[in-house]
Amino acid sequence: MNKTKAQVFIILAFLLYRMSSADEKEEDAILHYLNNSSFVQGKAELVFLLDRSGSIGAANFEEEKGFVESFLTHIVVDVNATRVAVISYSDTAERHIDFLREPKSKCFLSQELQDVVFKNSGATNTAAAIEEAALVFENARPNVNKVIILITDGFSNKGGDPVPHAVKLKQKGVQIFAFGIGRFLKTELQSLATSPNHAFSSSDFKEFKRLARKIRGDPHEVSWSGQASQPNCDHLCESPYKGDPNDPGCCDHDARCSCALLSGMHTCVCGPGYYGLSGLMGQCRACPRGTYKSKLEPTRSCTPCPPGATTAELASTSVNDCYCKDGYFGDPSSKVPCTLVKCPPLQKPTNGFIVGSCESTYGSTCFFMCEDGYELVDQRDDTRTCESNGKWTRNTAVCRKVICPALQKPRFGNKVCDSGMLTVGKRCRFSCWEGYIMQ
Question: Where is the signal peptide (predicted)?
Answer without folding.
Answer: 1-22
